[in-house]
Amino acid sequence: MGTLSCCLLLTLALLGPGATTAGKCDLQGLWRNELGSNMTLLALDASGTFSGSYHTAVAATNKQIVVSPLQGAQQHPGEKGQPTFGFTVQWQFADSTTVFVGQCFVDRRGKETLETTWLLREEVLSRRDTWKATR
């Protein structure tokens, strides 16, 4: 049987008062999801790349959860009002990496929401165990 992978829809909502013009998403800022995880995205550069940090509220580990760095890119920065984006989190407390892809949406009231899907890959001892390495 092939690799089993699972995706979860993750919604993040910007904290604080609306910091964007109506109808156009701005990824920069502090985001929190429904499980209590926090993500901070720094300003995008001219090519649409950004960095930041992610502090997850949930993890399958007994180790202490710590803030982990992220790197990402937004498609066509400044051109679209509801852009697509992706970023990678290098977990500092586990032998795994997670990639997120998504889109930023703005509702009629100006509230920004990120709709994302993620894929986590953890290190396994051999290629034979690769089937259980991806969630």
From TrEMBL:
User: The organism's lineage?
Assistant: Eukaryota, Metazoa, Chordata, Craniata, Vertebrata
Where it sits in the cell: the answer is: Secreted
Q: Which UniProt keywords apply?
A: Biotin, Disulfide bond, Glycoprotein, Secreted, Signal
What residue stretch is flagged as signal peptide? 1-22
Asked if the Swiss-Prot or TrEMBL record annotates the protein with the keyword Transferase, the reply is: no
Q: What's one Pfam family the UniProt record gives for this protein?
A: Avidin
Q: What is the protein's given name?
A: Avidin
Assembly, in brief, is: Homotetramer.
Q: Which family does it belong to?
A: Belongs to the avidin/streptavidin family.
GO MF, one annotated term: biotin binding
Q: Which GO terms describe its cellular component?
A: extracellular region
Gene behind the chain: Avd_1
Question: What InterPro entries is this protein classified in?
Answer: Avidin, Avidin-like_sf, Avidin/str, Avidin/Streptavidin-rel
